[in-house]
Amino acid sequence: MMTRIGFVRHGITDWNLENRIQGQTDIPLNDTGRKQAHALANRLKGEEWDVLYASDLIRARETAEIVAAAMGVSVRTDPRLREMNCGAVEGTTQEERIARWGENWKSLPLNIESKESIVDRGLSFTSYLLANYQDSSVLVFSHGALLRLTLKQLIPQVDTRERLRNSAITTLVHFAGSWDCELYNCTKHIS
């Protein structure tokens, strides 16, 4: 049994451009982000994808809905696909964090979700897909930190240090108990 999963980071937002930490703050796509989603939709509409899942946060959900409309399918949401909860630092820039908490702000208890918690959510959702969508192709729309940390666990043999770009797609195939990476962080639809 083979399962193919396309992991997509949402289109760009104003907070992405301002280098503000979004976390679970519900920030919408901007016009450029919507154009990225439409470009991705044009790229993917001729491909076979059986089901689409998205984070319930608007930026990922809207990206998924634009793609789903081009394919004539619906989007299912799952809160496990939300971005990491960034606690007190959500909405801040690096300069604002340093001004508020000092250079060592990362070492402070600011209610930021642990990497282990994020990975647990990502792997839990991936296991759910493997159990419920064998021999299927699933598109998953989520967020940079959740995707990066989950992919690092699924495909440790692939260099995943490159920051996932907005509207990028990474495609993995699960077969005979192991993962193969077909495509990583691809944005040819907007290049």
UniProtKB/TrEMBL annotation:
Residues noted as binding substrate in the record, renumbered to the chain: 9-16, 59
One Gene Ontology term from the biological process aspect of the record: negative regulation of glycolytic process
GO MF term set: fructose-2,6-bisphosphate 2-phosphatase activity
Highest taxon above the source species: Bacteria
A GO cellular component entry from the record: cytosol
Residues of the active site: 10, 83
The entry's keywords: Hydrolase
Coiled coil: none
Protein name: Putative phosphoglycerate mutase
Organism: Neolewinella xylanilytica
Source lineage: Bacteria, Pseudomonadati, Bacteroidota, Saprospiria, Saprospirales
